[in-house]
From TrEMBL:
<dbReference type="InterPro" id="IPR024344">
    <property type="entry name" value="MDMPI_metal-binding"/>
</dbReference>
<dbReference type="GO" id="GO:0046872">
    <property type="term" value="F:metal ion binding"/>
</dbReference>
<dbReference type="GO" id="GO:0016853">
    <property type="term" value="F:isomerase activity"/>
</dbReference>
<dbReference type="InterPro" id="IPR034660">
    <property type="entry name" value="DinB/YfiT-like"/>
</dbReference>
<keyword id="KW-0413">Isomerase</keyword>
<protein>
    <submittedName>
        <fullName>Maleylpyruvate isomerase family mycothiol-dependent enzyme</fullName>
    </submittedName>
</protein>
<keyword id="KW-0670">Pyruvate</keyword>
<dbReference type="Pfam" id="PF11716">
    <property type="entry name" value="MDMPI_N"/>
</dbReference>
<dbReference type="InterPro" id="IPR017517">
    <property type="entry name" value="Maleyloyr_isom"/>
</dbReference>
<feature type="domain" description="Mycothiol-dependent maleylpyruvate isomerase metal-binding">
    <location>
        <begin position="30"/>
        <end position="178"/>
    </location>
</feature>
Amino acid sequence: MSVDMTRWAQEIPGISRDTDAREVALGAYERLLEALEQLEPEEWRAPTECPGWDVAAMVGHLIGAAKAGASVRETLRQQRWARRHAEAFDSNRLDAANELQVRDHAHLTPDERIAELRRLAPAAVRGRMRLPRVLRRIELPLDPGGSNAAGMPATVSLGHLMDVIYTRDVWLHRVDIARATGRSVDLDSSTERRVVEDVVAEWAERHAQSFHLTLHGPAGGVFRHGEGGPELAFDPVEFCRVLSGRASGEGLLATRVLF
């Protein structure tokens, strides 16, 4: 007798501070650090799919983001710099802040980058989880302060940013680094499964259309929303890359989610 393992997207619990945001965030950092420790010296110079960033620069960005998560003072410093220099980045303050994060850590060796990120990760997650509930409801516009790619949501709440988006950023940059260095992405952990299923649930909620989705592999599963709809099949990593805007997508896949 076969067992139907299909999951309804609307029944997937969201990642949040009230559920498992802390555990998933720490898990994403740990999996990233494990991957970085395996890199050879020359692989740190490999170009990534993020324009202008090699692996070292991408990790510099992640260190800067962790510092901001750990410290309100550091967040404000980066935001002030981004506002002053946004014009050089097509008025995108997020791109400006990212550039500052890369510059701030350009002097670090690969070993120093790993050590700094390992030191900062727990404090970054604690800082994000401490955001007061009243502030977590604030909605931030994403254009020009964040991604303005077609299909992206127009706003994001501070709570969702802290609980989910920064964790997705860490997770997907691990994918970026693996692709840049020709390495595989190990998806066989609860962290991977939670990130992927949370992406599925948010994507389904955003477009609100029926679908039947099969994601192959250890971080995948079979998901549906509504009755009928298109039959879709993907590798979990490629599915997330499409929804992030890193790869093209049509139909329901033109609806993106933030990473």
